[in-house]
Automatic annotation (TrEMBL):
It holds the Pfam family Pkinase. ATP binds at K89. It comes from the Eukaryota. Signal peptide: none annotated. PANTHER family: SERINE/THREONINE-PROTEIN KINASE 17 (PTHR24342), SERINE_THREONINE-PROTEIN KINASE 17A (PTHR24342:SF6). This is Serine/threonine-protein kinase 17A. Keywords: Apoptosis, ATP-binding, Kinase, Nucleotide-binding, Nucleus, Phosphoprotein, Serine/threonine-protein kinase, Transferase. The gene is Stk17a. Residues 12-30 have a biased composition (Low complexity).
């Protein structure tokens, strides 16, 4: 079992792969294919693109930067005439000397397509300057669900929370898939919450990597965030709606356990873990998680895209029915993955969670992992691992984006 990686604030990263097949053991980093063309992009929008100065209608909130990418920054803003809060996404039209206005138009068009869906971030207005396009978006005050994934036990998601939020995510994704849209970058950083306390509803954001899938076209692209990309991305096989479903399986795993199932100590190891299906469903990872939840993940983390459950099928899974009641998940004869502590990492113990209830399951000890040069992340370590003072591999790790730079931002 290997750690969880969070892309840096540099933008959505893209998974590298060989020209035809995923790299095998001992292979060098996969090669990138030629840059993708504009296939799968919507090129017409209904929105009135305003050329009046953005500052005439809105004022930026001091110090409230919500996200930053290689080619965009998201700032909190206030509409002057109403006082309502929004998120303004400032997107550069030229990126590395190339005109990328078409990619921005595509993102706007997808947001327009999903304008009436409650689980997709709402687009309010669009402005354009000679160098930028500005998307005025709904403000999701609860922030990313990633923050809940790395929180300590008292603040982390409970299984009943994940059930409710995952149903909303799937309803949103089902809507997109029904309209031939594949997101291709579903991850905790791209799922926002309308409020943090009480726990609000989800909003799917960042459609910079999304594509329109037509039955008559075969689309092969290398994109996504390393530990969430599907095997077909790495092997440069055709993308489909099932590519999103793999990412949802990884997302569910992370939300329930605080552990990334495939992330390695470097990008190549991450790719190998995905292509070789190196993941664990042991009791150490799923302590206190229901067997139904584990079965749900297993319906998605399948190597062959045609074997994975669809969004519609997932919504019919027993785990997501209102009457579903979590029960402790146990695995007989589970084998633990080797624990490796990277050089430069340090471990600081947190106080044990002394509160224990039937809904939360067995007592879980917390560990805080400090990853050198990046930031803090939390993982859950068993009492057995703690007493034996083993090194820890199940942790959050943060790295810069991967290889090929493809338009798309970290948030919104």
């Amino acid at each position: 079992m290997i750690p969880l990686e969070k892309p840096g604030r540099g933008g959505s990263s893209s998974a590298a792969a060989s020209g035809s097949r995923a790299a095998g053991p001992g292979a060098s980093a996969p090669r990138r294919p030629p840059p993708p063309q504009a296939r799968g992009l919507l090129t017409e929008i209904r929105a009135e693109v305003r050329t009046a100065p953005f500052q005439d209608g809105y004022r930026l909130s001091p110090g409230r930067e919500l996200g930053r990418g290689k080619f965009a920054v998201v700032r909190k803003c206030i509409k002057k005439d109403s006082g309502k809060e929004f998120a303004a996404k400032f997107m550069r039209k030229r990126r590395k000397g190339q005109d990328c206005r078409m990619e921005i138009i595509h993102e706007i068009a997808v947001l327009e397509l999903a304008q009436d869906n409650p689980w997709v971030i709402n687009l309010h207005e669009v402005y354009e300057t000679p160098s930028e396009m500005i998307l005025v978006l709904e403000y999701a005050a609860g922030g990313e669900i990633f923050d809940q994934c790395v929180a300590d036990r008292e603040e982390a998601f409970k299984e009943k929370d994940v059930q409710r939020l995952m149903r909303q995510i799937l309803e949103g994704v089902h809507f997109l898939h029904t309209n031939d849209v594949v997101h291709l970058d579903l991850k905790p950083q791209n799922i926002l919450l309308t409020s943090e306390s009480p726990l609000g509803d989800i909003k799917i954001v960042d459609f910079g990597l999304s594509r329109i899938m037509k039955n008559s076209e075969e689309l092969r692209e290398i994109m996504g965030t390393p530990e969430y990309v599907a095997p077909e991305i790495l092997s440069y096989d055709p993308i489909s709606m099932a590519t999103d479903m793999w990412s949802i399986g990884v997302l569910t795993y992370v939300m329930l356990t605080g552990i990334s199932p495939f992330l390695g100590d470097n990008k190549q190891e991450t790719f190998l873990n995905i292509s070789q299906m190196n993941l664990s469903y042991s009791e150490e990872e799923f302590d206190g998680v229901s067997e139904s939840a584990v079965d749900f993940i297993k319906q998605l983390l399948l190597k062959k895209p045609e074997d994975r459950a669809t969004a519609e099928g997932c919504l019919r899974h027993p785990w997501l029915t209102p009457s579903s009641i979590p029960s402790p998940f146990k695995v007989e004869g589970a084998v633990e993955a080797p624990d490796i502590l990277q050089e430069g990492d340090s471990v600081a113990e947190l106080n044990e969670d002394t509160e224990k209830s039937e809904s939360e399951g067995p007592l879980v000890t917390e560990e805080l992992i400090v990853v050198t040069s990046y930031t803090l992340g939390q993982c859950r370590q068993s009492e057995k691992e703690k007493t034996e003072q083993k090194a820890i591999s199940k942790r959050f790790k943060f790295e810069e984006p991967l290889l090929q730079e493809i338009p798309g931002e970290f948030i919104y």
